[in-house]
Amino acid sequence: MIAIMTDFGVSGPYIGQMRAVIHAQAPGVDVVDLFPDLPACNVKAAAYLLPAYTQYLPEGTVCLCVVDPGVGTHRRALALQIDRRWFVGPDNGLFSVLLNRGEEITTKEIHWRPDQLSDSFHGRDLFAPVAARLAKGVDDGIETIEAGALVMPDWPDELSEVIYLDSFSNAITGLTATDLPETTVLEVAGYQCQYTRTFAEAGPGRLFWYRNSNGLVEIAMNQAGASEKTGIRVGDTIRIVSN
Prior knowledge:
It holds the Pfam family SAM_HAT_N. By secondary structure, the chain is of the alpha/beta class.
């Protein structure tokens, strides 16, 4: 299986073109649009979303990850094997949190290049074909490199920021929920919120935080859009008021 995570968005031709390339090179391989609307050009936010949203992928899955504001430059192209899954994408810090948390890691650089390589769409021309080949068990054109050669930004293991706003206007953060006591009071965009286990327990219109289904702290309102009502945006700092 190939799982796609990218900031290309659900509209436009980009994901469709990548899927077409995959189908041409690996017909019959299942392709899942796992997270097609990561925050645009936000490598840092995507780096913290990757571990949470790839944890349920079966072993052997190839995760095609493209958040690549440096497309067309001399940055490396990577094929990483982390805890029995492949991750294909640019060497720009996108995989840094996964690498820091992973246990079984093999780092490889993609040296293969297609006959025609667009300067603005390596997702289609480079990463999608490599993902298709890996899904078929073909790993030629990639060579092992030292993990120390990779781009590893100095980011914390837990990120106290909003990293994604979902279609309900809920604010997903880079904090792992299991690390916070239920008594913790959080503050974001000037608003404070307490832990509530379910939406129904919060009552309509009340801001609260909860443990989302992928293990991250999420800030929401029952039957209302938290970011719409409060002005919360991606990048806003989460402050622990008390715990």
